[in-house]
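Usage example:
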Amino acid sequence: MASTSRSDHDGSGDAPAESTESESALETARRQLSHAATRLEIDPSIVERLRYPKKVHEVTVPIERDDGTVEVFTGYRAQHDSVRGPYKGGLRYHPEVTRDECVGLGMWMTWKCAVMDLPFGGAKGGVAVNPKELSSAEKERLTRRFAQEIRDVIGPNQDIPAPDMGTDPRTMAWLMDAYSMQEGETTPGVVTGKPPVVGGSEGREEAPGRSVAIVTQLVCEYYDRQLEETTVAVQGYGSVGANAARLLDDWGATVVAISDVNGAMYEPEGIDTASVPSHDEEPEAVTTYADDVISNDELLTLDVDVLIPAALGNVITKENAAAIAADLVVEGANGPTTSTADSILAERDVAVVPDILANAGGVTVSYFEWLQDINRRAWSLERVNDELEAEMRAAWGAVRSEFERRDVTWRDAAYIVALSRIAEAHEARGLWP
Ligand code: NAD
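Running the assembly step on the lines above writes:
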């Protein structure tokens, strides 16, 4: 079972590693590529190129521990494809970071940026380290040394990292500072997910949850369902889940269930979502505040209109897919549905709006942050939210037209949109030399 991913700013998260019962991140990304390619008239040589990363950088990151000893870690930056713009994707600090995982998750970022029509390609990186075993000073030294080791291959026009599992806005501020010191000029656009005081964007933390809520509203509209008459269950009450639940509650939906790692609160008449602290506000408060606690497994099979898995990967599996009673599933987490479960849901006509569209608000506001940094001009929260909504509607529109035109699932439609854009760009640029 996947672990929860914190601050997965650019949204490629932890789940692809296990997005089928036993598939690696790279296998999943390649399977998704081949699957989408079969539905398109596309030059096979382009598909072949997309099966591989452009470059993978592996570096040695030695740091001095607080006790004076030196420890050496391995860091990676996998750059998958940059045909549409600079590479973009998270940096994670996790003991299980591997080269192949970075490649697979980097590919996933390529699809996510393309479905949103952002002028970015995909990348992923990290250091194989347990960040919980590092003091703050050690983490800072690790980040600065890692920044130095990958300095030549990142930059605002080259590759723009963001926070992911085990890294956060503070890590990004150190990385930006280390890079800027060496470049001799302050370069905020080298990373996104920074604290606003050094060029981070308003509305960034809330963005993935906001995009989940916007997409839920759009999919409900599509199926002629009024939000006021829609019941919603949300698994996970963290950055993604709580923001999505609160917005949907504000917009008139009835949120009947929310959960944390210990279980779920279920109130058939509707939960006052503002009164329950999110994971950030008070970790694992949902079950503390609940009168009636049900299990996370029960939450997934509640008879609601919309189910939003927003905690971790691989929660809808071949074991429970037949019991999912919701008509619509909107993927807030990365890879919450295994591929076997996906087929079962498709056969049962349960609409599943995929993660690469639904939670892409994170990377979209990262793009806004990059624009603000380059222009040295901060946007208001209102502008960020308005522009995010416009981007989500545009991406939704593109996916919806493929869905209607080709009679495929929402997931296939999203991958078709992404792959066609990438393939067209490769077609237009050609092969050098
Ligand atoms: P978070 O740590 O803020 O919150 C996670 C929530 O899930 C918490 O309420 C936690 O109690 C709950 N949880 C943990 N383990 C659970 C379990 N076994 N069963 C049920 N609930 C459990 O995390 P987040 O940032 O909201 O991320 C959630 C998911 O969304 C992850 O898959 C992540 O990769 C993905 N995602 C996050 C972002 C982002 O920027 N935060 C962007 C895109 C995708």
